[in-house]
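MODEL INPUT / OUTPUT PAIR
PAIR INDEX: 1
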Amino acid sequence: MPPIGLDPFDTPLFFALPDVIASGSAEPTPAPAAPAAPAAIAVPVIVRSPAAAAPGTGTPPRPSAHGGMGAVPHAGGVAFRVWAPNAAAVSVAGSFNGWRADAGPLAGEGNGYWSADLAGAKPGDEYRFVIRTPGGEVLWKNDPYARDVTSSVGNSVVVDPSFDWGDSSGYRMPPWNELVIYELHVGTFNDAPGGGAGSFASVAARLDYLRDLGINAIELMPSMEFAADFSWGYNPANIFAIESAYGGPGALKDLVRQAHARGIAVIFDVVYNHLGPSDLDLWRFDGWGQDGKGGIYFYQDRRSQTPWGDTRPDYGREEVRRFLADNARTWLEEFRLDGLRWDATAYIRNLYGNDGDPGNDVPDGWALMQRITRETDERQPWKLHIAEDLRGNEWITRDPGSGGAGFDAQWDGDFVHPVRAAVIAASDGGRSMAAVRDAILRSYNGDAFRRVIYTESHDEVANGHARVPEEIWPGNAGSWYSRKRSTLGAALVFTSPGIPMIFQGQEILEDEWFHDDDPIDWGKLDRFAGIHTLYRDLIRLRRDWYDTTRGLRGRHASVHHVNDDDNVIAFHRWDAGGPRDDVVVVANFSARGFGDYRIGFPRGGTWRVRLNSDWSGYGADFGDTPSFDTVADGEPRDGMPCSAGVAVGPYSVVILSQDA
């Protein structure tokens, strides 16, 4: 896809956050935690006529002098502001004024926005906007900017955004070339079968486990308020509110605080390609709409249609762009999240998610992505934007200044699909080492760390697919074949250049396919302790814990040996090069082991085995192939100046490097 151009709407974010954030500081000042919200209060079905003046005063309401959208607490009460350009009148009804529709009138600001300061409101109060249309219709609507709701069909809640973060001065986001991401679904990551959904608190309870595994970044599947309590999260009803079943906004902040205390970054999944479609108060928010479409927040023509509903946001409206850009900044600044993973960006930039389809491109969507990524780079350049685009489009990770979308990395379909195919194929003859080579060497814009690589993600283990061990042998995911070949794929994730990612439970051989109501079976941590240990060892080598494999953090790779007849591949990884930096990886995709398989090495001398995945400690039935240290001599091979013999077991990987 050629560059669509720079953001023509390069204007400052409008009312992005309450005053404590809007000052421009990178992080908010610590303050006491917000109070808990009370239980939901039903909205009356009978409403009164709009008042022309504030009750008991005889004077018209005045616009709020405070910035911010939605409900913004301040010393004198709460400022309410909402965008409803087609409304005849707007008021706020809530627990602070007896849910009287005429008790909290807002003043029009002359630009489609309505606002007022209500002295009687406070954090913890519930409310809704009451919108009267020119035709006399009365709509009770949740706040589009609500920071909390009692449920997706409940009421909005006034939230004090301040939070006691404690002493976070020691936390720094890990360098991107050292990240190891663990994707998880809050509702099923650490939960008991048959009960309610898991929570942020239950995720926090396993942070020590993740740190021990070597994880230094968790990626949360969407946790904005969605319909019901069980969902993948890709149906956001209220994009500023945190899912109430997971614990709400305070619980997410506490998870971030606890993760940062352990050196673990938190990446948040956002959905800007569509909204809802269920429990969506944004639909015809102020009563207006055309041709059966959704009104002010959505396109009113064919551009509104997506595979998930008729709810593509209208990226051409400045107010909608502000809404989405404010949302991104809220997560990165108020919640101190370390990055955002954007769902299905191909459908933000093209009606059908295509490349090379200019007639269906959405230039406004491209401009929105540029706007948000550019602003993050200006304010917090260490924070990470990841695109799930999966079209191999290099413009996604190019700088906005050159016409790119500005993402820091993108999920790499050119890695996951050939690697999964190589380990899942039933016959050794069905594996392509050339395809594996190309997967290892793929990069975007010449930078391997512009991609996230994996063999399992929430998409790859559902939607007609299953976990890799299950795909290898359906119904027998614990078999020797499933364990050997699935871990061979994982070894490539941790030794190939890129940002590695695994999906929850992958390290304990979770099987079947991903359900949003089927918790991880943590009993497998004992049953497959060896597999867990193998993942831990791979992650520690990837992060160079022992100062022997620095090359696995480097950008450089050379696949110098490709043997399609025997299904063996070998590659060289390095950062600056030299002992304790250069790493050689030998991967055997064959059911046959080799006792003395000769490959090229970049230097002579002793090469030490740092990992042999055929070790019986990883599986009692593994072969314990004697993959000992080897000495490279001066015989050139594979384009390398030296060579040596390496023993490698069936469906196994051997990782070697040199001491000083």
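PAIR INDEX: 2
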Amino acid sequence: MDTTQIQSDMEQLRRQIRRHDQLYYQEARPQISDREYDALYAQLKQLEEQYPQFITPDSPTQRVSGQPLSGFVSKAHSVPMLSLDNSYNAADILRFHESVRKALPGEQFEYIIEPKVDGVSISLRYENGVFVQALTRGNGREGDDVSANMKTIGSLPLRLNLEAPPPLLEARGEVFMSRAGFARLNQRRQESGEEAFANPRNASAGTLKLLDARLVAQRPLQALFYAQGEMQGVQVESQEELLALFKQAGLMTQSWLRKAKDFEGIQAALEELQKAKASFPYDIDGAVIKLNSFAQRRRLGHTAKAPSWARAYKYEPERAITQVKAISVQVGRSGVLTPVAELEPVFLAGSTIARATLHNEEEIRRKDIRIGDSVVIEKAGEIIPAVVSVQLQQRAPTSLPFDFVAHIEGKCPSCGTAIVRDPQFVAWRCPNLQCPAQNMRRLEYFAARNALDITALGSVVAEALLEKGLVEEPLDLFGLKLPELGSLNLGTEEEPRTFGEKNAAKLLQALEAAKKLPLANWLFAMGIPEVGSTTAFHMGRTHKNLAELASSPKLKLLANLSLINEKAKSGAVGKDTADPELGDLFAWRKPEADSVFQPELLEELLAEGLLRPSQSSGRAYVSDGIGPKAAQSVLDFFAAEIGKNWLARMAELGIDPQGEKAQAETDKNSGASLSGKIFVLTGTLAGMDRNTAAERIRKKGGTVSSAVSGKTDYLVAGENTGAKKSERARQLGVKVIDEQELLKMLGEE
């Protein structure tokens, strides 16, 4: 087929998909079914797989990158992202109005009042209508480049829906989760044994910081826009015109908007919004009042931190008064005991609240919460119920302070073992590793979706296995046999309910598949403190297997990061001598082009993106992906009896999970063209984005790092390259190649 025709067909498919995205997300009037949409998408994806040279950065298929980033890069905002001054009462708003009136004597002016979304600030950059960058607010002057993560948001156009897009448009707004989406996410997390997020804002912020866009794509992020950064080739002179432009371009805006010409009008709008805010599908924590006219905004100007023409008005969180009927104690996976207030049910912020966490013994003592007290509760972040204070005037004279230890008679409520005080945390803990409650939580965690994904092992099955003594710890699952599992009673003796051979076979099949899962999954499944899915991923990608990880020099270095920084900054250790405080972990040396003493292992961690040079004068290096606490926690785990047992049992079962380092060695031995080569990408590439380039390098056996070091083989320089990386490459003698040379090496010339 003629390649010109192929390109034309692919572009036609992209236009169709973009149009249907616009109809679905912006106009809420889809014209085709999900199946028809999926068929269009599949057709485009198939063509792009056949003809990868015709893939465009703004193609709908490019929303999710194939490989995780090694770290985020900070970039300067072309126009600073200022925050807003906050107001909490009518007097503050009146003072704001008077300051505007005095600054515009004799002029007519108009305010726009918009809901203040409780989300995470973001700035998008479009060049000639094509999405090129997304930055977080950061410190207002520079933010993290989270472009790969923002591209996963289906409602976000990768190409603006404008016939003649301007050369440059920066749209600023908020990333958030709807209440319904957040509830579904937390339900999935709890079902898979993960801790629930506290509120949608925390969930959104945490999601934007994930290094793997494939994980981001599984979370219900949305974004809407209300402000501008740098703009070229487009004339907009009011907030109304800006919102109209955004809407026309396919960027989501809020439908609720009110105007006011005076203080009374502002007050009326704020009162109306407060009554309506519960009906919004997402959380709002206030309103933003801003001048409509951009010309008048320019005359008012701004302070060093905030514009003088706008104010944020914060609503008080909704509260209710109820009674503490009892205090129960829950046992977590790690044995930590958490007190929970059992409340007289009360309706608050759209739902009925019957329980509220009390966090720990210190929190109960600080607020002097007692059984029988009338308490004020609120939804912290609009989601999690929390006890704010006690109504002391209503306390009964016979009331006694709550004694946490005496309440449970100093014993674990699940197994009866004497509880101990955790020396590191403000918590009591059950030390019995065979505690039924802990075993139950560990089994659920072990089988979670992003652990070993043993879908047939639900909480009911796990509880039955523990009760019948068939399983005591997670690895016992691999000794189960079909007859005993199939006959497992999930009900009671009076009303038996058998698990069945069909379900048993599914569970055994899932266990067999779990044996072959990679190192990151197994590490997460072990439930080591401080090791979440992101940390497990980074440990998995930088180690060969579990045996190497258990005594990893890399983790020892990261665990001693504060000491590394002291040594690196002071140059206190001489060339090629072992550091007595760190044993023979590594030898320090002084590179010819660098005035800072570094251990040789530092270069490997820099190349793998686990460390990066610090911009702070207080330290030399910052960890990325694996923090010092997580590194020490893993080392402590495998040095302890429990970790040694895991290693021994897994060896007996023939389970040897492999990390990405092992795969890299396999590629090298099989003659992959770029095996062992380390690349760093900088600047803008013409034929593909940097994530795509990184994915193609990895497929050929190469490694992609975020920082240039002595181990870097090639710096791939596109347009607008970073001066620091280029200069660093020159100092270290690293070869600099352009995009065409990279394509030759990839065999894609």
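PAIR 2 NOTE: The domain at 321-429 is CATH 2.40.50.140 (OB fold (Dihydrolipoamide Acetyltransferase, E2P)).
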